[in-house]
Design a protein that fits this description.
By secondary structure, the chain is an alpha+beta fold. Helix content is 23%, strand content 15%. CU-O-CU linkage binds next to helix 5 and helix 9. One of its GO terms (biological process) is pigment biosynthetic process.
């Protein structure tokens, strides 16, 4: 099989005897709230709090936030304070259960500040100020409109769409509906322009990526963008909807032609010239921008590779809400807890593939860098497709449902609407697109059947003694070459029922790097063939992808996050269910920046996203 990647990084095999996996062993974690603090909510003496998906490091137990505006309370006090109704949240306290409410609340626009790019002057992407915030109300009897696939729309539609964006770009610069203002919304919510309410330090900003906020934030963002466009062309098409870029379907795998016409309001000069039609998108492209072009791959292989990425990310690799949506991000948490499967890939690679390659004066603009991504009109079609995958994922079966944690449901954002009103929205109102007035055109979903073959090429033979030879990986490890390590499995030979109840999850912990670099590494399981071959290979478990944000606050800003991979199906395909351990290979696909990893382990995800509190 042709390698999908030219010039692989040098190989070094290191290993892990499983000890570090064990030291990180978990499931849900418990911490104890001391009596004196629990008494603040006038409840019985002790609570044991189990947060299933969390950044359970040991300092969660004794961290005092250094710059917490709420004064001398520590984090748990604040969470309980919020839960007790301090901010009018809906948490309830009963003897059976206690919801510690700590949703990320709507940012205070008066606290919005400039964001500093790595080079050059700070960027101000703050919206115009308004002190008058109205709460979102569902449109009464909304007409349910259809968002169409971009490759299926007709000439009249394209003409109207261009006119809508042209009018949006022609609005006064300080009009919140103006195109640049719309693009800046994304920059502000992604580059740390808003402190979390109650905090003023750079560690506690509102961040809509790398967590469970990713899907609902972008849905709301498109909702208002679309309404503004529709309102600007009521004379032409009052039922206007934005089109989705159907990159998961072979017919939609190029940039839709009307985005590529010069002199169109839908064109953007800051794109990769190598990614113009008829070039096929690479859903597993590197985030570096330099090594994502594989000259040897045929169009047929590219299509198959793309369908496999979709299958891995949507079908086999994201069987629980936590795997799909990403990790919890609550008030008081540091940003970037961990992205869901789709946010990583294909969402990230499509950004980078569309934007300019890095180098010279390019930082991947526009699409390949989150501060500038929404300046390209194609952004909104890219995200419409991402948004479309949410209901598709939910339709795929058991456990595939929205998160029922009130911190997610009550999380808030603000947007200006088509009447220039500042509107506060909540995640819970975004869950049903019909209530918001739209659905997606029904098109073929060919990747549903793109299951990899069960005849893996590189699997470790049963009873093989090869694994012990990989012992010795030291964590944290620097990912500067291909790394192979053995990770112990806490359970093996699980019954069908057990597998249905609990997904086996490979967790890569403490992934650290500077956030202005594009990072990608691929992950393979039981692949003795040095981990190349890409998504076509059965052993491919997925990728970690970081689209650069390009900003820093004074000093180099580091991201620390984690990535999870659902591997129950994969292990079945590999015939590795009875094995004591798995061989994990990480293949770095970036050229810039330095990545370190704190540990790799296997956990079991029962029903992530649930916050359960037991009062003993
Ligand atoms: Cu907010 Cu595609 O990123």
């Amino acid at each position: 099989m042709a390698s999908l990647y030219p010039s692989p990084p040098p190989l070094s095999i290191t290993a892990n005897n499983g000890a570090s996996g064990a030291s990180l062993s978990f499931g849900s974690f418990l911490f104890k709230i001391p009596k004196s603090k629990a008494s603040k909510v006038a409840k019985p003496s002790q609570y044991y709090v189990s947060r299933v998906s969390c950044k359970a490091t040991k300092d969660d137990n004794d961290t005092v936030e250094p710059t917490n505006d709420l004064g001398m309370f520590d984090r748990r006090d604040m969470l309980i304070g919020l839960g007790a109704g301090l901010y009018g949240t809906t948490a309830t306290l009963t003897n059976e259960s206690l919801s510690l409410a700590a949703p990320i609340l709507a940012p205070d626009l008066s606290k919005c500040h400039e964001v500093a790019p790595v080079e050059g002057d700070p960027i101000n992407c703050c919206p115009p100020f308004s002190s008058n915030i109205i709460d979102f109300k569902f449109p009464l009897n909304p007409k349910v409109k259809v968002r169409k696939a971009a490759h299926l729309v007709d000439e009249t539609y394209i003409k109207n769409y261009k006119e809508a964006v042209r009018r949006m770009k022609a609005l006064p610069a300080d009009d919140p509906r103006n195109f640049t203002q719309q693009a800046n919304i994304h920059c502000a919510y992604c580059d740390g322009a808003y402190p979390q309410p109650g905090f003023s330090d750079i560690e506690h900003v509102v961040q809509v990526h790398n967590s469970w906020l990713f899907f609902p934030f972008h849905r709301w963002y498109l909702y208002f963008y679309e309404r503004i466009l529709a309102s600007l062309i009521v004379d032409l098409d009052p039922d206007f909807t934005i089109p989705f870029w159907n990159w998961d379907n072979p017919k939609g795998m190029t940039i839709p032609s009307f985005y590529a016409e010069l002199d169109s309001p839908l064109y953007d000069t800051l794109r990769d010239p190598n990614s113009q039609p008829p070039k096929l998108v690479n859903l597993n492209g590197s985030s570096d921008g330099e090594i994502h072009v594989d000259k040897t791959i045929t169009p047929e292989e590219q299509v198959l590779s793309n369908l496999r990425v979709m299958y891995t990310q949507l079908v086999s690799g994201s069987k629980t809400p936590s795997l799909f949506f990403g990790d919890a991000f609550r008030a008081g948490d540091k940003e970037n807890p961990g992205a869901g499967s789709v946010e990583n890939s294909p969402h990230g690679p499509v950004h980078v593939w569309t934007g300019r390659p890095w180098g010279g004066d390019s930082n991947g603009e526009d699409m390949g860098n989150l501060y500038s991504a929404a300046r390209d009109p194609i952004f909104y079609s890219h995200h419409a497709n991402v948004d479309r995958l949410w209901p598709i994922w939910k339709s795929l079966g058991r456990n595939r449902r929205d998160i029922d944690d009130s911190d997610w449901l009550e999380s808030e954002f603000t947007f200006y609407d088509e009447n220039k009103n500042l509107v506060r929205v909540k995640v819970k109102d975004s869950l049903d697109t019909k209530k918001l007035g739209y659905v997606y055109q029904d098109v073929d979903v060919p990747w549903l059947h793109a299951k990899p073959s069960s005849s893996p090429q590189g699997r470790v033979p049963k009873g093989s003694n090869k694994k012990p030879s990989h012992q010795g990986t030291k964590f944290p490890l620097a990912l500067d070459s291909i790394v192979t390590t053995v990770v112990k499995r806490p359970k093996k030979r699980r019954s069908k029922e057990e597998k249905e109840q609990e997904e086996e999850v490979l967790v890569i912990e403490g992934i650290q790097f500077e956030e202005h670099f594009g990072i990608k590494f691929d992950v393979y399981i039981n692949d003795e063939d040095v981990g190349l071959g890409g998504p076509i290979k059965t052993e491919f478990a997925g990728s970690f992808v970081h689209v650069p944000h390009k900003h820093k606050h004074g000093k180099e800003k580091k991201i620390k996050t984690r990535q999870k991979f659902g591997i129950t199906d994969l292990l079945e395909d590999l015939g590795a269910e009875d094995d004591e351990s798995v061989l994990v290979t990480l293949v770095p696909m970036f050229k810039r920046g330095r990545v370190t990893i704190e540990g790799i382990k296997i956990e079991f995800d029962r029903d992530a996203g649930n916050l359960k509190v037991l009062v003993l």
